[in-house]
Amino acid sequence: MFAVTVTFQVDPSQITPFKAAMRINAQSTLTQEEGCRQFDVCTTPERPSEVFLYEIYDNEAAFKSHMTTSHFEAFGQATKGMVISKDVKLFSEVQR
Fold first, then answer.
1. Distance between CA atoms of 46 and 91, rounded to whole angstroms?
2. Is residue 69 within 8 Å of 33, Cβ to Cβ?
3. Which of 64, 72, 83, 89 has its C-alpha lying 20 to 30 A from 51's C-alpha?
4. Helix, strand, coil percentages, rounded to 5, for the chain
């Protein structure tokens, strides 16, 4: 298993369209990519412009493949200029 976490800080005026685009990306990833096992989009009222992702893939190759898909590229285009910062962390040893 291969885990990815991403924390986005989003322009507060863009959070609603950002979350809508993210939900489409997450759903497309789960339904169209065999190597994706989990894709959670997390938010909290305490930090309304923060979006946290938790993704599980079969392996690193499945994640790299995810980054070449049309829905991932469409998400990037749709959210251009909305993200203030992004912190990505990769975990190659996932134990259950």
1. 27
2. yes
3. 64
4. 40, 35, 25
For 3, the 3-state DSSP assignment is strand
Domain ranges for the chain: 2-91
pTM: 0.91
**What type of residue sits at position 90?**
L
Please state, in angstroms and rounded to a whole number, the distance separating the CA atoms of residues 57 and 36. Answer: 4
Closest-CA residue to 83 (of 8, 13, 20): 8
CA angle 63, 67, 28 (to 5 degrees): 90
How does pLDDT run across 46-75, given as a tens digit for each residue? 999 999 999 999 999 999 999 999 999 999
Q: How far is residue 23's CA from residue 31's CA, in Å, rounded to a whole number?
A: 12
